[in-house]
């Protein structure tokens, strides 16, 4: 096993249900919980039929030091419902973020004598529709050159959510900052969110980590997820590293998963009152551009957003229009740009 899979070791306490991989399972599902025990338990309920259709599948719930009664509630549900033969709980000693929580379960599985061929990252605020996991596994089995694939995410009523994206770039930042209808079709060519979301299985730059399956060989070649990200941009970064290594990423809408947007993070819920973006969002964004494109590109990306967005914000003020961005976003963006924060990659240990 490559050395990079063994770095940043984590001391964890595993409760009574340990990860047993005596017979190679078809899939390892990892759910990272942080103070959402009810959502996590609902997600586990939705996985029961999927486990039956994929015998040997293991589910590991890591708890990012919630500090509430998450561990007790989830463990009680596993024991009460009789899920102990396929589900296990791994409490972690600190909240290291999304990548940290996933890696804590992925690392020992990949380093075991019988590593799973696939790992599925699954949000706790999801409900898996019937057949969603088997569709992903079958797709990966049929397409050995595909490294990553993502599900169709949707609202409880079946309405489509965007879960397939283009890589972030200077042009996408300019497009995000300049909110003008003029030249809309031209600008859409640069957008991170494609103007026409695919309705059929198709290749894409990156997919949402709320339901993302990864081939084992991808981890073996590029390593685990970057724990320098606390939350956000980590799945885009991971898909970019896989892309550079020659692995393609696909969107598979036949795999349908309900996603209760923003319930686990409280940041991206479109129905919630707009609040300031947390520090870790800005640090993750800055890390993505500096790490993957260098300091000059990162500076140009910041400028490409800041200048047109300043113009957009002034136009909204003159017209009396309400901003569609979070509270004090321009102030926070400028204060967290490379022009003020520099080019050092920030640590990821944030309280939430």
Description:
- The protein has 352 residues and is α/β, with parallel strands linked by helices.
- It folds into two domains: 223 residues, Spore Coat Polysaccharide Biosynthesis Protein SpsA, Chain A; 105 residues, no CATH class.
- Helix content is 38%, strand content 16%.
- Strands 1, 2, 3, 4, 5, 6, 8, 10 and 11 form a nine-stranded mixed sheet that branches.
- Strand 2, helix 2 and strand 3 form a beta-alpha-beta unit.
- The longest helix has 25 residues.
- It is globular, with a radius of gyration of 20 Å.
CATH class of the largest domain: Alpha Beta
Number of strands: 11
Distance between the termini: 34 Å
Q: What's the number of helices?
A: 12
Number of domains: 2
Proportion of beta-strand residues: 15-25%
Using the 3D structure, state the CATH architecture of the largest domain: Alpha-Beta Complex
**Radius of gyration over C-alpha positions, nearest whole angstrom:** 20 Å
Largest sheet: 9 strands, mixed
Overall average pLDDT = 88
CATH structural fold name of the largest domain:
Spore Coat Polysaccharide Biosynthesis Protein SpsA, Chain A
**Roughly what percent helix?**
25-40%
Taken in chain order, the helices and strands follow as EHEHEHEEHEEHHEEEHHEHHHH
* Helix/sheet category: alpha/beta
Any low-confidence stretches, pLDDT <50, length ≥5?
A: 1-22
């Amino acid at each position: 096993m490559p050395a990079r899979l063994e770095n940043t070791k984590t001391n964890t306490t595993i409760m009574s249900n340990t990860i047993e991989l005596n017979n190679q399972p078809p899939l390892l599902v990892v759910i990272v919980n942080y103070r959402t025990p009810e959502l996590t338990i609902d997600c586990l309920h939705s996985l029961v039929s999927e486990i039956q259709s994929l015998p040997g599948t293991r589910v590991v719930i890591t708890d990012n030091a919630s500090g509430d009664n998450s561990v007790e509630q989830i463990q009680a549900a596993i024991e009460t419902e009789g899920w102990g033969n396929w589900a296990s709980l791994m409490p972690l000693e600190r909240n290291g973020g999304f990548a940290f929580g996933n890696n804590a379960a992925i690392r020992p599985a990949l380093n075991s004598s019988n590593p799973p061929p696939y790992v599925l990252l699954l949000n706790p605020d999801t409900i898996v529709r019937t057949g969603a996991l088997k569709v992903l596994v079958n797709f990966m089995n049929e397409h050995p050159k595909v490294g990553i694939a993502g599900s169709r995410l949707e609202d409880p009523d079946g309405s489509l959510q965007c879960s397939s994206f283009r890589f972030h770039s200077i042009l996408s930042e300019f497009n995000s900052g300049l909110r003008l209808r003029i030249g809309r079709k031209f600008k859409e060519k640069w957008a991170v969110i494609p103007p026409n979301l695919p309705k059929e299985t198709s290749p894409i730059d990156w997919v949402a980590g709320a339901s993302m399956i990864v081939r084992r060989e991808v981890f073996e070649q590029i390593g685990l997820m970057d724990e320098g990200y606390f939350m956000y941009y980590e799945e885009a970064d991971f898909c970019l590293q896989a892309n550079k290594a020659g692995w393609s990423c696909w969107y598979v809408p036949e795999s349908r998963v309900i996603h209760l947007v923003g319930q686990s993070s409280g940041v991206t819920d479109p129905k919630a009152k707009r609040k300031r973006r947390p520090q870790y969002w800005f640090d993750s964004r800055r890390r993505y551009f500096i790490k993957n494109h260098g300091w000059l590109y990162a500076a140009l990306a910041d400028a490409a957003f800041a200048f047109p967005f300043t113009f957009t914000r002034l136009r909204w003020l003159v017209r009396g229009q309400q901003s569609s961005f979070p509270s004090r976003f321009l102030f926070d963006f400028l204060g967290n740009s490379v022009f003020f924060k520099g080019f050092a990659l920030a640590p990821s240990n944030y309280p939430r």
